[in-house]
Write a structure and sequence with these properties.
This protein is an alpha+beta fold and about 425 residues long. The protein folds into three domains: about 1-75, no CATH class; about 75-180, Beta-Lactamase (2-Layer Sandwich), CATH 3.30.450; about 205-415, Histidine kinase-like ATPase, C-terminal domain (Heat Shock Protein 90, 2-Layer Sandwich), CATH 3.30.565. The protein is about 45% helix and about 25% strand. The strands form four sheets. It has a five-stranded antiparallel sheet with strand order 4-3-7-6-5, with helices on both faces. It has a five-stranded mixed sheet with strand order 9-11-12-14-13. Strand 11 (about 340-345) and strand 12 form a beta hairpin. The longest helix is centred in the middle third of the chain and has 50 residues, at about 185-235. The protein starts with 5 loop residues before the first strand and ends in an 8-residue tail after the last strand.
Length: about 425
Amino acid sequence: MESLGVSLISPLISGGDLIGVVGLGEKVNKKPLSASELTLLRVLLDSVTPLISYSCLFAHVSNLNNWFIEILDSVKHGVLVFDKKDKLMMINNPGARILRNINPELPPDTPMTGLQMNFIFSERTLPGWLDRLARCRTRLGIGLPEILVARYNGSDLIFSVSVSKIHSSTTEGSDIAVTIDDITEMKKNEHQIFELQTHAELGMMASSIAHELNNFLGMILGGIELLQIHIEKGNKEKIRIALDQNKMFISQMARFTAGLMDMNKLSSKKQDLNINSLIMSVISFVSLQKKFNSIVVQADIDQTLPLLNADRDQITQLILNFISNAADAMNEARREKGLIIVKTASEQDRVILSISDNGIGIRPDLKEKLFKSRFTTKTEGHGYGLLTCSRIIKDHGAQVGIESAPEKGTTFKIGFPLKSQPINS
């Protein structure tokens, strides 16, 4: 600075911070500054420093304000701030666009600041809005969003509107900030997704019903094939037994179709049941089906097993589903020699039914997902079979366990209490 001819430098100090310096050159008469001139300079600098400080602060606040407004204008939500007398103090550009679209009474070009809330949210153009916003304002802190509807060009526009209180230490009462978000498109998308889910559920239900009916038809077909064999041999007693079993399976199908009227309820007719006899009957029928051509189904039953209080049709369906699922899994894995073992045993006060196969097994991370709604490990399955099994097991107060090893096989073990009680689901 000396090279510029500066002979005296004075700092500008504001609040303990250096905000600038003032440099003075030599006097025209080349004389040094006198004491009185230095005092006058000091008074002048003390007067100028606050003005410069305030100018810098104002510029900084102005930049912050412009930055704040740019941020508000960049969001899609409308943001409005009202004072305690419900006069609009600030509104961002998205908010102005939203309001002018839904309220034709608002001025199209002039600023909206200074307008009253009851004019902006006119009852004639936006019925119910003012009342809802007033209720939001009475809440403490941040109000939960209100879903409000506006009529525009013959169609409904849907908005999410929330109100927040802005407390000030300098004024009595509270200003409020109102945010408005146009969620019309989002609600339309949600509706479309719901429609798609509904159609998917209907398709899944149709597939589920077909799955169960195919099981029943398979049993009936097996019974007819046995009946043909007995007719050719002229064995009247076995013909009668085969006819009775087919009548039972047809009755089960009828009960199943009747139950479709209420999928949430499971109608039960429990009675004393010899589960060993039921297992042998199911095995004799399924063994004639084509998908069991390369699969052997064996029974390992405990002849001393007590009678079980259970619904015959449901337990038949349970055993059939487990055996059929095991066969499907082994056929899907292309096992050359499949083996399914149906075993019964007595364990304290429970009857244990287990169905084992030598299939590919179930991965540990998938075990917990079994018996959940519409979950299956089969590529062409839909999971309804195991879901039905889960409902039957719960209805009998039973418990199910799964033991599985990759590439070795799976065992489902169901424990039925001898005095079974249904579980309320």
